[in-house]
Please model this.
Amino acid sequence: MILKNYKTFRFLLISVGIAYVLHKLIFYFFQINQKTFYYSLERLYAVFFALSFVIIFILLKIKERNFDQLGMSFLLLTSSKMVFYYFLLKPILKIRHYDIPIEKINFFVLFVLFLTIEVVVTIRILSEKQ
Model:
């Protein structure tokens, strides 16, 4: 069981690492200035990674105790994470400067990326046999 948990967290870490490198390369090649962003790319990745790590950790604990509640727990955790992200996004929505569309797109791309990773991990957890 412990080795499977490490495999899950390793998948999360590798996926996030690859996405971060690709994200930085895209910003470099398209010459997008991040200095005007409300949140730096590193800070966003850190927050998104931390919340994903916590959600996956909780899901693995729920799997050990009550496998039948895993799907509903994922929905509840994801919904609460969305509320947190809304409050994180609120200052970006209020700012009115020229790079705001890029910053909004950046935030939503990160949200979709991390949600996809969490869904893949949850599907893997659900498909494992007890």
